[in-house]
Amino acid sequence: MNRGEEQQQLDLEDILGTMSTAAPPAAVPAAAGEEVATAPASSEATAAPSTRKHRNPSLYANVPAAEIIDSLPLETRLLVRRRQYGGFWQAEFLLKGMAAAGTCFEPEASDIFLASLPKSGTTWLKALAFATLNRATHSPSDGQHPLNHRNPHDCVGFLEFRIIQQQQQHDAAGARGLYEALPSSPRLFATHLPYSQLPHAITEEGSRCRIVYVCRDPKDVLISYWNFYKKVAATAAATAGGDGDGQDSAGVTKFEEVFELFCEGRFPGGPHWLHALEYWHASQRRPDQVLFLRYEDMLGDPVGNLKKLAAFMGCTFSEEDEEDGVVDQIVELCSLENLKSKDVNKNGSTRLGIKSESFFRKGLVGDWKNYMTMDMAARLDKIVEEATRGSGLTFGNSSLLGRG
């Protein structure tokens, strides 16, 4: 890497915020549909992430990241334009959100972050955490509970999404104000960022912020995303005056194509298994700060896992809560069946601009068997096993296959 390329990497690290010291995953080879920029792969995937504090916090005000972001490898399939940075394929707009969060966000010791990849149980975890933290002011049995009238994504915002509008307006003060105006003690955020790309102030030694991560069997994540993608693509096509057939500008219409993208790790936020692996390692190093949950375990024992979640967040259920049925009421309030039945989740859109009903489908474990051949499943399992070998991380719970 020459001096110009080294400086470009340092500039990007400053813009995207200070990263943790976790080693980045290896870069994924180029494939059809990817545009590779002139910058060498090492500038975005193999260089060690920065551990320096921001040299210039005012960078955010001018957002000079565009040219540097444009130099990163590009993937255009599946609607969202993605760039590879630090070994992960991130939506372009999220890279800018990362820059804003890394520069403007000041965590509080009581902050709680709900981390996941899309279609891994994010909506459910948001609902459970929100209802549990706010049960003193919003009884889960109350018909006016916010979750009866608002989508979970509108109750718990994404850290990296909150300030994108202000970033586009180059309004640093407005971005900070969005965070400062949030209720405190504790504040609840969600994120799809890898652990290594969270603002360093959240993950640094001595930080008291808590992180809850939920993972799901990669095969079921793929199926859930495939169905979600078809809905969003059809809506986008119809809005643009197309026929709404679920085809995007890159022509991805077949499941086999999407399967290949997933195996290559080119999904938004992917590779899926390396995203989970980072949080798994963090939960082993810092069990008091990082709780690692599995979607399948939550389905199998929702009450037990809700109690674990509450205890970790510092709001343990009392004996009186349990005697009054509060735990069961929260489980019922946040169940897929109940959330799907609400008018707010059948009509309209979230603040993310996505139809609310798109976030709810089957919630099945093992639904991949209705889409994948056994050879496809074996191939994906092998990729995941090789990537996580020796870590102790496992996905899924075979005893729950076919359960909804």
Quick take:
By secondary structure, the protein is α/β, with parallel strands linked by helices. The protein is 42% helix and 8% strand. The protein has a single domain (3-400), classed as Rossmann fold.
Content-based structural category: alpha/beta
Strand order of the largest sheet: 1-2-3-4
CATH class: Alpha Beta
The proportion of strand residues reads: 5-15%
Return the domain count: 1
CA-atom Rg in angstroms: 21 Å
Protein name: Sulfotransferase
GO molecular function, one term: sulfotransferase activity
Organism: Miscanthus lutarioriparius
Region (Disordered): 23-56
Structure description:
The relative contact order is 0.14. The chain has one domain: P-loop containing nucleotide triphosphate hydrolases (Rossmann fold, 3-Layer(aba) Sandwich), CATH 3.40.50.300. The chain contains 19 helices and eight strands. By secondary structure, it is α/β, with parallel strands linked by helices.
Topology:
Layout (H helix, E strand, L loop, with lengths): L2 H14 L17 E2 L23 H4 L3 H4 L4 E2 L6 E4 L2 E4 H13 L7 E4 L6 H12 L18 H4 L8 H5 L3 H9 L7 E4 L8 H4 L6 E6 L2 H22 L15 H9 L8 H14 L4 E5 H6 L1 H12 L5 H5 L2 H8 L2 H6 L1 H4 L27 H15 L16
Helix pairs in contact: 5-14
Kindly list the characteristics that best describe this protein.
about 400 residues, four-stranded antiparallel beta sheet, 19 helices, Rossmann fold, alpha/beta, four-stranded parallel beta sheet
